[in-house]
Design goal:
This protein has 6 helices and 9 strands. The protein has 197 residues and is an alpha/beta fold. The longest helix is centred in the middle third of the chain and has 17 residues, at 104-120.
Length: 197
Amino acid sequence: MSGSRRTIDARGLPCPQPVALTKKALEEGGFETLEILVDSETAKDNVMRFSAYSGREAEALPAESGGSRILIRAAEGGSPATGEAAGERATVFLSSDAIGKGDEELGAVLMRGFVYALAEGAGKPERIVLMNSGVKLAAEGSAALPNLKRLADAGVDIVACGTCVEFYGLKGKLGTGRISNMYEIAERLLTGRIVAP
């Protein structure tokens, strides 16, 4: 395998797809160096941060056609353990259909990216709790629904607040998950690790 290289063209792809493709390739292995082509500073920075997080050496170089070439050396022994591999499955708490305060359109884009990253990642949460406008993510027609379905198919328990579903007029319109009550939700949130972006 000496000197073997795999190239991924992630130019034009929105966040978090360049990182997801990088992660998947590193998990598959079979090469000494992974080359990722990106065409934005954001994608370059995100891939470089992921490389550092995963304990791999990475170098960003200018690409002949513009953008950057990121070279990552494959680690011996594969990827570091994820939370799931270490036995620490979390509950993800989504209380909105957007992430953060500020521009609503940006917040919606960030939430779609977050749910996509959860679906693409090797480690999965034990459950995702949807409250307030977060229940809209599981509604028919939601851009996040396909990835929530993928998570459900992978065994993630998608739990939607019944009061919230009623409030937003979504009864009978959820594309995945199950409706629950505040008692169960409170109990779930009081046990184990909680992730709330």
